[in-house]
């Protein structure tokens, strides 16, 4: 008589009556999928804040990466909201063209470069823009197309955590250079020596060199590079490309928070300055912008962004247009249409564009006020936060961030522990609570 295989111990209710995988589903998942587990740290700490509020505690939310008004409601740019609601039903329901709505693609280039676009166009530069589901989609387009599998992408050692997942999913590795220089030099917010050395090492050992630089308004620190630091980074990349003509070099600027920075288009100015100085642009060098409308247009859930490429040879940008468009088609089909349509309409009309700018300025002012209070309070109470200038966050470097955030949670102040430190979500906390957060950090650090 043939022997049957019984259920695994502890699985008496298994309707298959068969032995099950030691790890549930392991025989169904590929090797990469098997590494995708666990909860997102940021959302986990946000859930803890919500639970504390539900229990009636006077809790402070420094976790979420969304901009909240002082009463805790989501900050919404009202002109965007109004124009979304007035849009024709067809714009909600129809597909967008695979590469994006033409008017939106044109707008995206202007949002990335600002007034510097005209100068670059007069110099003969070509542009390519491909609509994507948020800035995350733009990052995927770049990782999937501009690096050889197995190569490492260069990041600052403090960066947005999901970068690692994008790279791993595209078969890429990660290299890092320090967020800040170890010793005082020409660039207070750019570790130029370490950056140059790492770029050279990668160029000697890889077919591609790609840098992801989240600037201005860096997540998770709020750091913004100076004009001198931007120029130094650009010069290093261009010099490396010239030295290694067979190695493709790409500088990707992640500008998710840039429109809340004091110099939202500083990189455009830096590129124009380099060209006016006569710096030669190597054929194997590309600049890309990962643009997101989530924060700038307070439309996080509509998942609208673009990957924009800049190169002096328009034949290059035309080829990239086909490559990025095909990748989008094979990955998400087409990016959502409604915000592409609404943003293009909004910015094409002087009255609504000015109304949007006025509201954006108000929200930026809210962030600036909170940051100024926080920086001053940290100085007063001896909290050694990192330099922070723009955007949604501030940062405290620490070797044991979990212990600090757990101690803060005992005071019902909720922050996010990440590798190497603590992200402080100024975007989410009421202005009146900012000094309390600084005092709480001082208490738990001493």
Keyword list:
single chain; 446 residues; alpha/beta; Aspartate Aminotransferase, domain 1; Aspartate Aminotransferase, domain 2; 2 domains; 7-stranded mixed beta sheet; 3-stranded antiparallel beta sheet; 12 strands
Describe the structure in your own words.
- The protein is α/β, with parallel strands linked by helices and 446 residues long.
- The protein folds into two domains: 41-76 and 353-445, Aspartate Aminotransferase, domain 1, CATH 3.90.1150; 97-348, 3-Layer(aba) Sandwich (Aspartate Aminotransferase, domain 2).
- 43% of the residues lie in helices and 14% in strands.
- It has helices at 41-54, 78-86, 89-93, 102-113, 116-122, 134-145, 163-169, 192-205, 227-243, 266-276, 314-331, 338-348, 350-381, 401-410, 434-445; strands at 60-61, 126-132, 152-156, 173-177, 208-213, 248-254, 285-292, 305-311, 393-397, 413-414, 416-418, 421-425.
- Strands 2-8-7-6-5-3-4 form a seven-stranded mixed β-sheet, with helices on both faces. A three-stranded antiparallel β-sheet has the order 9-12-11. The chain has a two-stranded parallel ribbon with strand order 1-10.
- Strand 11 and strand 12 form a beta hairpin.
- Helix 5 packs parallel to helix 10 (266-276) and helix 6 (134-145) crosses helix 11 (314-331).
- The longest helix is centred in the last third of the chain and has 32 residues, at 350-381.
